[in-house]
């Protein structure tokens, strides 16, 4: 097993908590994991990314070489597009559809989404809307985990347990909402895969 | 013990705990901050070892020297430019004959993710004639930290542990020891005078250090951290890696037609004997190091005869910026991978910016309004979130050089004929390195205005508490000798921009030194403190 994920978003969106759920599931399933993160200045509303590498063998580099990632997971479309450089030609890009417009020259959204949909394997998920319907728009990163769950090298159950472990200390309500968000992401994935 | 998932920084912190430190001191700075953050949480949970933020890196290192003088082990952590501030105690600590281990963990930031330069701390270890360890993984960060304390006491020097961003801020599993070494009991130095660096003593200490340096060089040849693997069948290319460059090298190794002889260096002084043995097996040597060409430069001295040395100096690796697996791949002569084609326009950049509703923004609005009709006004500034005021929509500041420089530069600029000049500095940066230049300005009653943006936090590094409560800033400013009639505290609230602009303008017009403090809590800090209060009240109820 070798599964490399580039997670991309805007500082403050929760890229690291998204990575934490997947990384937690991987380690519980006996895989090795390395996760490179961005701290500091970029966290103030700039572009941020994390490199999460999963493997059943020792992992050397903390960084993923370009054009080799199995998955690019975007928390918003512009950052997903920017990080498509890392995508292996056979890899999949999954992104939230909702933009974070904190720059004056943010591109036209329809055109941006069309650019993303034109990639060989892309899923555009209305993650924020689904999270809102699940009970909390902040659970959008868990929606995205659900929307990627068929690609990840372990089962749905492992991911649900990871949601419980990672978010457990925030209380039962947070866990319940995030499990609902996860399942909404899975349902959206079925729809997104079918439309292709 | 089951393995733990740790950031590189956290692995250093845990390694230090398991080496039996009694104290850790630091000033926050990306990418080193998490070392002492982790130790603060550990101390709150376990009751020790003592961990504390300090006013700046110099006081942090000097405080740790006090721990070592008392014969106990201490950790100091800082970012690379912090070592410039702490260079005085660091270089001299190599002379005093340490008997309680001292490890100085310095996190470099090649690529300048969150820094003003990409200086390489290994040069400081060389300059001070001391040992440097450079981990290649989180596991090595843990293991090296533990061993560094033994080495510090064996060679009686501070050991510099050199980290880089993509180790400090990367997580992986680490196998850790079951328990910590017992802390040493307090014991002052055996020899009176060993710590008194009067010239007569210092000359002797310096000769002794050079002798010990030879012992360090001998140790380096067969220590655990430097490995040479010779491939008798490949006599063309030899590769030297240091630190995390080894990971990038191994990432591409399977694609090379033949495996080069390989020397990995994780401990310095660089092992000259191993380098010569590698050179005897290769005609060309590629040096891969994340940072400046530290080893590459030494090769010319180490290797007699004509070798082709490739690296940052030769252009085989770019002269600036951090290493990546793709740069190393190109350096090894492998073809670049092609990213998928993306039709349409390139994504616009998204630079960091002040948080929505950040009080610094409202303070800048007032400052810009105060300066609106003044031709040729100058605004110097400093290191912190407010440096983002250099960018639109504010474009309010014209300098950011090093901690505290805003105030001294303003004084110099006034004395060189610029007028008016405003120095903008944050509360924590002021406490770090702004008080001493303010004393200079008081001494000449320089015609300038200092605007202290007091957000009651060390914002950029994660909103830590400043070293003393911000409410004491007025006392400090007045204690330095600023005229009380020209010290004002304003609230940078969006509805008070005009009133604040009037205050700032009056003080700019005053022909002497003035200080305006714009005080409003950082939003990130406010959120963090609210969470901490909620957690506390929950505990009380439980």
What portion of the residues of chain B fall into strands of 2 or more residues? 15-25%
Q: Which class do the helix and strand fractions of chain B yield?
A: alpha/beta
Helix/strand/pairing category of chain A: alpha/beta
Shape of chain A: globular
For the largest beta sheet of chain B, what order do the strands appear in spatially? Answer: 3-2-4-5-7-6-12
Number of helical segments of chain A? 7
Globally, the shape of chain B reads globular
What's the Cα radius of gyration of chain B?
A: 26 Å
The largest pleated sheet of chain A is described as: 6 strands, mixed
Give Rg of chain A in angstroms: 15 Å
Oligomer classification: heterodimer
Question: How many DSSP-defined strands of chain B?
Answer: 19
Short summary:
Chain A has 7 helices and 6 strands; from the N terminus they run E-H-E-E-E-H-E-H-E-H-H-H-H. With 196 residues, chain A is an alpha/beta fold.
Give your account of this protein's structure.
The complex is a heterodimer of chains A (196) and B (542). Chain A has helices at residues 15-28, 77-82, 109-117, 127-134, 140-147, 156-167, 172-194; strands at residues 2-10, 32-36, 47-55, 69-74, 87-96, 122-125. Chain A has 196 residues and is of the alpha/beta class. Chain A is globular, with a radius of gyration of 15 Å. By secondary structure, chain B is α/β, with parallel strands linked by helices. Chain B has helices at 8-18, 34-46, 57-69, 80-85, 87-93, 122-127, 138-155, 165-168, 199-221, 245-253, 272-279, 294-302, 325-331, 359-371, 405-415, 427-444, 473-479, 497-509, 523-541; strands at 4-7, 23-26, 50-53, 74-79, 102-108, 131-133, 159-164, 170-174, 227-229, 237-242, 261-265, 267-268, 284-288, 308-310, 378-380, 421-426, 449-454, 487-490, 514-519. At the A-B interface, strand 2, helix 2 and helix 3 of A face strand 8, helix 10 and helix 13 of B. Strand 2 of chain A pairs antiparallel with strand 8 of chain B.
């Amino acid at each position: 097993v070798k599964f490399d994920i580039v997670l991309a978003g805007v500082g403050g969106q929760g890229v690291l908590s998204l990575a934490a759920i997947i990384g937690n599931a991987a380690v519980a399933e006996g895989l090795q994991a390395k996760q490179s993160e961005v701290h500091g200045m970029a966290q103030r509303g700039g572009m941020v990314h994390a490199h999460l590498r999963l493997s059943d063998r020792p992992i050397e580099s903390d960084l993923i070489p370009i054009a080799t990632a199995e998955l690019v997971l975007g928390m918003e479309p512009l950052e997903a597009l920017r990080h498509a450089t890392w995508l292996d030609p056979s890899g999949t890009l999954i992104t939230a559809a909702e933009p974070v417009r904190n720059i004056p020259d943010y591109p036209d959204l329809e055109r941006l989404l069309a650019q993303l949909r034109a990639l060989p394997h892309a899923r555009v998920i209305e993650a924020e809307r689904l999270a809102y319907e699940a009970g909390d728009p902040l659970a959008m990163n868990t929606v995205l985990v659900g929307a990627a769950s068929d690609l990840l090298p372990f089962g749905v159950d492992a991911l649900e347990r990871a949601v419980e472990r990672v978010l457990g200390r925030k209380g039962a309500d947070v866990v319940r909402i995030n499990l609902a968000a996860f399942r909404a992401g899975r349902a959206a994935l079925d729809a997104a895969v079918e439309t292709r | 013990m089951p393995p733990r998932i740790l950031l590189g920084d956290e692995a250093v912190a845990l390694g230090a705990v398991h080496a039996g430190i009694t104290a850790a001191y630091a000033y926050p700075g990306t990418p080193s901050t998490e070392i002492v953050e982790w130790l603060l949480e550990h101390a709150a949970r376990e009751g020790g070892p003592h961990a504390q933020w300090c006013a700046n890196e110099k006081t942090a290192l000097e405080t740790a020297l006090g721990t070592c003088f008392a014969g106990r082990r201490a950790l100091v952590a800082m970012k690379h430019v912090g070592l410039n501030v702490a260079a005085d105690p660091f270089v001299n600590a190599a002379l005093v004959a340490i008997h309680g281990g001292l490890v100085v963990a310095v996190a470099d930031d090649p690529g300048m993710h969150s820094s003003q330069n990409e200086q390489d701390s290994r040069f400081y270890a060389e300059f001070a004639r001391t040992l440097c360890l450079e981990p290649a993984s989180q596991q090595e960060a843990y293991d090296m930290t533990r061993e560094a304390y033994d080495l510090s006491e064996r060679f009686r020097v501070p050991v510099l542990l050199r980290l880089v961003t993509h180790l400090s801020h990367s997580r992986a599993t680490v196998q850790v020891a079951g328990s910590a070494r017992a802390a040493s009991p307090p014991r002052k130095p055996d020899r009176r005078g060993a710590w008194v660096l009067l010239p007569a003593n210092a000359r002797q200490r310096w000769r002794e250090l050079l002798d010990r340096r030879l012992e360090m060089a001998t140790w380096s040849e067969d220590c655990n951290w430097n490995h040479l693997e010779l491939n008798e069948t490949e006599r063309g290319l030899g590769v030297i890696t240091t630190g995390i460059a080894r990971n990038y090298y191994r990432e591409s190794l399977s694609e090379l037609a033949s495996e080069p002889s390989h020397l990995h260096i994780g401990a310095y002084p660089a092992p000259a004997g191993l380098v010569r043995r590698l050179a005897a097996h290769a005609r060309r040597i590629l040096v891969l190091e994340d940072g400046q060409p530290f080893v590459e430069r030494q090769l010319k001295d180490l290797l007699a005869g004509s070798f082709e040395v490739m690296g940052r100096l030769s252009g085989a690796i770019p002269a600036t910026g951090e290493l990546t697996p793709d740069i190393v791949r190109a350096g090894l002569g492998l073809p670049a991978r092609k990213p998928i084609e993306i039709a349409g326009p390139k994504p616009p950049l998204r630079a960091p910016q002040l948080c929505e509703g950040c009080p610094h923004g409202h303070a800048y609005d007032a400052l810009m309004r105060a300066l609106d009709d003044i031709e040729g006004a100058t605004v110097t500034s400093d290191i912190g979130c407010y440096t983002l005021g250099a960018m639109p929509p504010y474009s309010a500041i014209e300098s950011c050089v090093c901690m505290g420089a805003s105030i001294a530069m303003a004084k110099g600029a006034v004395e060189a004929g610029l007028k008016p000049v405003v120095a903008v500095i944050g509360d924590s940066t002021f406490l770090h390195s702004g008080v001493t230049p303010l004393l200079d300005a008081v001494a000449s009653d320089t015609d300038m205005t200092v605007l202290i943006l007091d957000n009651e936090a060390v914002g950029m590094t994660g909103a830590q508490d400043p070293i003393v409560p911000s409410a004491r800033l007025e006392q400090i400013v007045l204690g330095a000798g600023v005229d009380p009639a020209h010290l004002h505290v304003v609230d940078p609230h969006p509805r008070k921009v005009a009133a604040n602009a009037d205050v700032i303008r009056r003080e700019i017009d005053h022909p002497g030194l003035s200080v305006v403090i714009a005080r409003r809590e950082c939003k990130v800090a406010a959120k963090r403190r609210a969470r901490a209060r909620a957690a506390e009240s929950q505990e009380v109820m439980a």
